[in-house]
Amino acid sequence: MTELEKKVYDIGVIPVIKISNPDDAIPLAKALCEGGLPAAEITFRTSCAAEAIRNITKAFPDMLVAAGTVLTPEQADAAVEAGASFIVSPGFNPRTVKHCIDKGVPMIPGCSSPSDVEAAIELGLDTVKFFPAEAAGGLPMLKAMSAPYGNMHFMPTGGITPDNLLTYLKFDKILACGGSFMVKDDLIKAGDWAAITALTREAVKAMLGFEFVHIGINNENADDAMKGAKLMEALFGMTVKEGNKSNFAGTAFEFMKSKGPGRHGHIAIKTNFVDRAMAYFTRMGFAFDMSSVTYADNGKPKFVYFRDEICGFAFHLIQK
Fold it and tell me: Is 170 a catalytic residue?
């Protein structure tokens, strides 16, 4: 996975945007960043696309900005000159794809058939857009089509909603999803940036799916840990389960048999994607204790502690 592909993967959802007024570009970009998605695919469906890209990249140089609906080499050149990091097209146009490759510009062409995918492979690409995703058969079609191509990654776009977003992202051949549900035309035209921020946050919430798992409470010794667990049993009828390092009362309370991470203990949070959650929190300015990371068989992190305590508790993420 290239550095660019890793950035796209970490963000997970790329807002696909049609801008009719270039003056809307900066407040729109600000709304997306505040909502947790510092990325935008500005489509060349309007004449001001290049100007909008230029406005965003100048105001938010760390934002990941792509040019979408690029149909010609000339549009690709205009997008790159404006500051786009990569090019996205709705279909597979060999002339435009080759032009981008020859210029060293990352390109994600649209593919909806095995023939399209093989044409992309022939040109050395390992990531393509699956478009129009839902109309072309959705995830079942993508799974069937992608089966012979082990090294190919896909970015489904078209019909992606908060309801099906997670279903797509859980498929391991998907790099990210493109969607416009958080940047609807009427909201952009109305300048309702607060609504766009709220919808963006909902998209992030749907992707990461944070859930409280349990609270771990530090104790001096095993006897104190058992006393705490038994008290929960007596008070609330929680079943006590003794373990080697801790005792659980129900599933929400863990009584440690010795002092573990955190002054008072720890709090565990589940997420759909530990790696994407780590990237999300890192963008917010939080850091992780990388010595605490454990990995799943697929090489992705499945457990990690935040570096700093919160109110005397260490926090860690767990893969669902």
Answer: no
